[in-house]
Design a protein that fits this description.
Chain lengths: 159, 399
């Protein structure tokens, strides 16, 4: 399974036939493995990483540090769930350090994000405080460098 | 007779030495020149990884430059790098070399090969090697005043050179056997059994062996056996290896030779007068590569493996027979069924379909009828090249 998933992780658009050739596994087996991984939520999602800035689209993101009062018996999980159910919360992590939960918030404008934090996130019962860092520039997203890396060309023939 | 004092010196005979004149021009160079005149070519003709050197390795070199490490190193190479190489060889192969006098850092495996030949060969000494083989092998022997002796290898036994094939070529002038497995251009690997038989032959006839193992980490589904680890071989093997292929460091020019101290001492003697030392920034990078580069190598190998399977299957699907290469990043399909020579096929393919491959004949007479195709190339390029080659073969089918 690992070889198949590794190939898919690099390029989600590979067909089962291509993966079959790359891994030496019969096509039917590849399809079965992929289906099972999808059913077991080992494959969470197929995604395309897009550089919206190139289209002139404004996409604003912010990293919000949330300090939380952990609840008896459940710790941070319950409050984390309340946060991550919001669609604006793109990623939610429990982190060590000065604050407890890191939330990556995405929106169309800074205003939108500010409203989300002040009206939806900060008022939650277990939330003690938030610190919002607006992301000014994206250099790398999901393993992909967004600018530069023009790809220096190799000589076309070398011994 | 007065000498002309014009700025253009006219000589009555060529100033070039006889040995250099006798070395045939590289078949690869000719192809490269042809290719430069055409736009939009998909090239399967490269001999280097399509990965950039992993950033942490580059970063270590950049940091060393910032710190001012720009001077000569010891002729032998930095002690840290030699020590790390000794550690690597020991942990990977259980073979120990003294980093003080049994390891030399060279300017790529290319320099290691040149030094080895100049160290061991007296004029007229013979060196046995497989055919086809890497273009530098016969040239390095000739340049050192020796005579290259080519032993045919064939598709039937996956281009493995065998002790049985070598033995009839041994004469009283044979000094050494030069092998490079995994192999450029064929992608062939040598099994431990065959290596053992070759080792036995070397011991019986008291021959040296030069083993170029630069592709040793790029193997698929098989284990690479280091020749020097076989019983009785350490003292008669010059082990050549480097960082170019496994760590995608071709431009850095760092390799190493490991052998008995008398041989390394002699190689170092030549090296100190010719190169003086390998580039310090390359050595810094290589040290970082050895310390932290293994997981990156593993990822690259997995990536090559996927593309290897695609290209071999691709060739077979378009009607070319192709043995399964288990090492390096080359496939060596046969184009014999088309009735064209390798050069003819490669040239026509380039003009008609803008796909560049290297004719197998550039690597020796036994490469005639084959092509060297490198799969260290983007998957989409490989697939497009296969499509175009399929079209080309259909068009030129022998009726």
């Amino acid at each position: 399974m690992k070889k198949i998933l590794e190939a898919l992780e690099k390029d989600a658009r590979l067909t089962p036939e291509q993966i079959s050739t790359m891994t030496g596994t019969p096509v039917a087996e590849v399809k079965k493995v992929i289906k099972k991984a999808e059913d077991d939520h080992i494959i969470l999602k197929y995604k395309t990483v897009i550089d919206w800035a190139k289209l002139g689209e404004d996409q604003v993101a912010a990293l919000v540090e949330v300090k939380v009062v952990p609840q008896r018996n459940v710790g941070f999980d319950a409050i984390a769930e309340r946060i991550y159910r919001f669609k604006e919360a793109r990623s939610v992590y429990l982190a060590s350090g000065a604050y407890d939960i890191a939330v990556l918030v995405a929106g169309n404008t800074m205003q939108e994000i500010a409203v989300f934090v002040s009206e939806k996130l900060a008022p939650l019962d277990a939330v003690q405080g938030t610190v919002t860092h607006f992301i000014l520039k994206k250099y790398k997203e999901d393993g992909e460098m967004l600018e530069g890396g023009e790809g220096v060309k190799r000589l076309p023939v070398t011994p | 007779m007065s000498k002309s004092r014009s700025s253009h010196i006219k000589l009555s005979q060529s100033p070039i030495s006889e040995i250099v004149k006798s070395i045939p021009p590289s078949g690869i160079r000719k192809f490269f020149d042809l290719l430069s005149s055409i736009e939009g070519v998909i090239s399967l003709g490269v001999g280097e990884p399509d990965f950039v050197t992993p950033w942490n390795i580059c970063e270590a070199a950049i940091y060393s430059l910032e710190k001012g490490y720009t001077m000569y190193t010891s002729n032998k190479g930095t002690p840290e790098l030699r020590a790390e190489i000794a550690r690597y060889i020991d942990s990977r192969f259980g073979l120990s070399y003294n980093p003080d006098n049994e390891i030399l850092i060279t300017v790529g495996v290319s320099e290691g090969l040149d030094l080895a030949m100049r160290t061991i060969l007296n004029p007229g000494d013979e060196v046995i090697m497989p055919d086809p083989c890497y273009v530098a092998y016969p040239a390095s022997v000739s340049l050192a005043g020796g005579i290259p002796i080519r032993v045919p290898t064939t598709e039937d036994n996956d281009f493995e050179i065998t002790a049985e094939a070598i033995e009839p070529y041994i004469t009283d002038k044979t000094k050494a056997v030069l092998i490079g497995y995994p192999c450029n251009p064929t992608g062939a690997v040598l099994s431990k059994e065959e290596l053992t038989r070759i080792a036995d032959l070397a011991k019986r006839y008291n021959l040296l062996v030069i083993s170029d193992e630069v592709y040793g980490q790029l193997v698929y589904g098989v284990e690479h056996t280091c020749l020097a680890t076989l019983p009785g071989m350490r003292e008669r093997t010059i082990l050549l290896n480097g960082f170019s292929k496994a760590y995608a460091m071709t431009g850095w020019r760092i390799g190493y030779a490991a052998s008995d101290k008398e041989i390394i001492g002699a190689m170092t003697k030549i090296h100190q007068y010719t190169m003086l030392c390998a580039p310090i920034m390359g050595q810094m990078a290589a040290l970082e590569a050895l310390k932290t580069g293994d997981s990156e190598v593993e990822n690259m190998v997995k990536d090559y493996d996927r593309r290897r399977r695609v290209i071999v299957k691709g060739f077979r699907t378009i009607g070319l027979s192709c043995f399964e290469p288990k090492g390096a990043f080359y496939a060596f399909p046969s184009i014999k069924t088309t009735g064209m020579t390798s050069e003819e096929f490669a040239e026509k393919l380039l003009w008609e379909e803008k796909v560049a491959v290297v004719p197998g004949s550039a690597f020796g007479p036994c490469g005639e009828g084959y092509l060297r195709c490198c799969y260290a190339t983007a998957l989409s390029d490989i697939e497009e090249a296969l499509k175009r080659m399929g079209r080309f073969i259909k068009k030129h089918r022998k009726t």
